[in-house]
Amino acid sequence: MKAMVFEKHGGPEVLHYADVAEPKAGPDEAVIRVRASACNYNDIWARRGLPGMKTILPHISGSDAAGQVIEVGSEVTTVKSGDEVVVHPGIACRRCYNCLRGEEYFCPDFKIWGFQTGPLDGAHAQYAKVPAVNLLPKPSNLSFEEAASIPLVLLTTWRMLVSRARVQVGDFVLIWGASGGLGVMAVQVARLFNARPIAVASSEQKLELARRLGAEFTINRKKQDVFQEVRKITGGRRADIVFEHAGSQTWPISLQCLRWGGTVVICGATSGYEAVTDLRLLWNKQQNYLGSHQGNKAELVDAMRCVERGLIKPVVDRVMPLAELTRAQELLENDQVQGKVVIVPPE
Ligand code: NAP
Description:
about 350 residues, alpha/beta, Quinone Oxidoreductase, Chain A, domain 1, Rossmann fold, 2 domains, seven-stranded mixed beta sheet, six-stranded parallel beta sheet, 17 strands, binds NADP nicotinamide-adenine-dinucleotide phosphate
């Protein structure tokens, strides 16, 4: 089959379009014909190489796929050939204490599919193999391209805002990167809970997208002072929740923008991991700093029900052929994507 592969870490140039063996289903697994995959930032972290994380080489990236089941293992009862599916990207044993508590991301065997799995085990290929328990029905109202664009970013956002920060009616939610992969979901999830999204982005065009998705307020971080704007918007109260993933460059501003007793929830650090925190904000202002990572399958099921009902919509910037994944990653790395880039393998 055709796949986009890298054998060593580096820039986009290490990716190459290759012929590799088709996956075979183990007893608990299913093979899907990938009709569409989506680019995520973790594709870039894996390709560059992350300190403290071993990427299994040769590597096929891709943690989001939508497709059709073409083969199931001998023990599989939950899906059958022909089913149209999407993938829950969190691979866990589903038997240990943490998994049984619904905390699959704490499983000692936890791996993000297409990021930490391998060799040659991800979505950017013609066929892919996953544990059958990781498959969910594709929402019937979406195309394969639209369906592939959703699971990882929606799951992460749902866990951050709903399970961790417990977003409430009327909350001011400050959302960094509001037109990015996570951001387009965060605006919609905040709106779904009748909260008041304050979208931050770097251009008027990106802010217009955020407004179309339901942002009540917008801030252009290149032209405006984010903290002063948040004070104006909230009448001096500041944000109830800050949705963080940009990291060291935004963290001090996030804490400044957060109200006393408010919650910042963070899942990533695109601009760097080292951040300064004035500890007085933690005890004196009693702010809550929560980490969040992916989410369990039940959280994805809950969130996908909202997709099926049309309450959360996919945001596909563009669809590109598998052979052009290198270019797709360059667009993502250069902050030129609004929503998601979707990849389609050859027939
Ligand atoms: P994305 O599609 O590239 O969007 C990120 C957005 O962040 C961009 O649109 C950009 O918007 C904004 N941004 C980038 N650098 C910034 C900076 N220095 N200051 C302010 N804003 C900045 O990426 P994504 O899919 O949303 O993911 C974002 C991060 O979260 C990545 O690091 C990713 O690895 C991480 N993540 C973690 C998990 C998890 O489970 N732990 C899951 C998904 C993603 P503007 O330039 O328009 O402001």
